[in-house]
Amino acid sequence: MNIPTKYSSSSVESKWYNYWMEHNYFHSVPDQREPYTIVIPPPNVTGVLHMGHMLNNTIQDVLIRRARLQGKNACWVPGTDHASIATEAKVAAKLKAQGIDKNDLSREEFLKHAWEWTEEYGGVILEQLKKLGCSCDWDRTKFTMDDDMSEAVVKVFVDLYNKGLIYRGYRMVNWDPEAKTTLSDEEVIHVEQQGLLYYLKYQIEGSNETLTIATTRPETIFGDTAICINPDDERFSHLKGKKAIVPICGRVIPIIEDEYVDIEFGTGCLKVTPAHDENDKVLGDKYNLEVVDIFNEDATLNSFGMHYEGQDRFAVRKAIAKELEDKGLLLKTENHINKVGTSERTKAVIEPRLSDQWFLKMEELAQPAIDAVLTNGEVKLFPKKFENTYRHWMENIRDWNISRQLRWGQQIPAYYYGDGKEDFVVAENIDLALELAKEKTANHQLTNNDLRQDSDALDTWFSSWLWPISVFDGIRHPENEEIKYYYPTNDLVTGPDILFFWVARMIIAGYEYKDERPFENVYLTGLVRDKQRRKMSKSLGNSPDALKLIEDYGADGVRVGLLLSAAAGNDLMFDESLCNQGRGFANKIWSAFYLTTLWEVKDIEQPESSKVALEWYQSKFQAALTEIEDHFSKYRLSDALMVIYKLIYDDFCGWMLEMVKPAYQQPIDSKTYKEVMSIFEGNLKIVHPFMPFITEDIWQRIEERSSEDALIIAKYPEVKAFDSQLISNFETVKDVVSGIRTIRKEKNIAFKDAIELMVLNNEGFDSKYNAVISKMGHISEVKSVSEPVEGALTFRVLSNEYFIPMEGSIDVEAEIEKLNEELKYTEGFLKSVQGKLKNERFVNNAPEQVVASEKKKEADALAKIETLKASLASLK
Fold this sequence. Notes:
Isoleucyl-tRNA Synthetase, domain 2; 7-stranded mixed beta sheet; 876 residues
């Protein structure tokens, strides 16, 4: 067999991935085996592979490959999310570049462009995952906008509406002026920003008196419909029942009283803008105030903004401050830090806006999901610390705003037949809607043409919260064979940033629609950061090209590099050198295999050293396997990999192979060779989930195998009892060998020269290990002695003393010459140090620590001279 001396990942990876695909190893169908199921967190259909995807999907692949080796029916369902806001923005930008305004297109025309975009770019990230080695069941690939998936979403909407859990309400919502859609509270990120507090003067109607009000948003004065004071604030008691005039626009507004106003904040007066602040809306409802909406959907000012109409809100803020100052109505400004809501997707500053939207009541739905994680442990979070975050979110849950002013997504299945707010029906399709409308109106003359469907789309999360159920068609056909076999799934791997967005909502949906958990364990990865602890992002330019990393270090090297530092829940400080370490590990495994191909195998007697070495490694392997299983049970994949790394790199390559390796140009006995290759196969099995490509390649090279014997479906090693005393004893053997090698190095005793070893065996150490010590230390004979050996080189391990007679072991004349040279140098160094210490000027003027350092050098040199003289005396 022609085996390359070096491992080449580029020539191996596509070969074996294609082989796995051709033989359908990734595909799963229900059978009599125990199922092991993972559903992929569906990446955005417009996305490309980044470091977070690399980490998340490597972890999933490790779990799925390990389950496959354990004989389970492993099913990893891949797919993508239609990502309403992100995708619609990309499609709109593409159309704009072509001179087309998306608003000039009908829904059908826009969706045609969106589908074209999806078909062109939608599969990119899934293809990239294949480069990483991900063993997904690609035949099961799902997309949240597939017909069956959309049908399930609509079915759930109708069901929840009929249960009284979905309702339409006129509420203050989070408005993204860039995407021109509402967002849920969870999609708003509050960012601390430095701004200004503007002190504005409002004139009291019918007098020259003015009232000063502090605001962070002077542009919103056009929407003011009241001023509120605290009834207990004596400073303003004389203003009760009066009115004020809004600067610039001249609107006369009432002065109202409410304890909501904080007397200590700003001036103690509050301008009330019910259309643009949630708390102001509460006051507006309470006191029946006028509601004046001053913004267009893109956050430019509308006609209420007078001469600022059509200008952006932030441009108006600067301009109106200047106008107010010129009119003498801006008293002062102060620096002010406040938290500003921004869109998670577009990063635009959120604008509170009153709007008719669809909401899902969450409090009742959330309770089973709270119990599952926090009470009965049916769903476990790893690491456990995230339970506190989960508790905070779930126990303070608010109704979910599920409608979006977008075209890309499942269209809300509400059909309007009149002009009133309640003139609608909810149904899975227009034909059913028509029947309901006829029944509701008692008008049997209605036709489909009389109905118009709600133009809004559903929040993307409203489709992905069904993911573990809908990928197995469990909504449309709740009793089908696949949902009954694969659900609930086993493990979910995702980031803590979507613990509420997605994870909690999937748990809610699982109990609502299957009356059981959607998964048992949730493994929450950390964020991938750079060495400066910054989150990796395109904008910072600190995120490496994922595919370039694979090209440079191999997929196995990148996987190992990521996982060695990816403890559950902790952020990964990514350093490219980690991938280099992973590549180095792959090369080490390859070199070990290449070494075994060089051996000539013969039916000769097995050396005692090989017998003991193999016995030791079998126990060492089982001890490691026990530890690995424990780490996996706690989702400590990084720790499991490190155990494997040390086992193979240090114990297998560094010790066992050296112990069984035949002498130069000598054969290896067939018994040892067979056991070594069996051990090698065991090593390949435990490292395969982490490094699938190199392990499959070596596995297939060890011997010719059929497709039924591929490593990917081999049998994972069973945990068996092991001899812990043997492992402990071998640590002593290693220390003895290390002691021998240290003396060889210090005394320049070539390894080719055999030496004698004498042992004062105070420990009663088993002599069966002498064969290994002799092999690894190139010892001609190991003798037991009853007392210390005079004139020998010596070292100690535990209470045992080991002696190497100098006669015949070292070149005495050469050693004397070497020691004399070292003695001469040390005496010269001592003279120099003592010269400094005799210099009174130096001792009196030098810093205390410098003088102390020189005195230590003197003491060390004196001690070394004494040791060197003793060594010379022993050689003469």
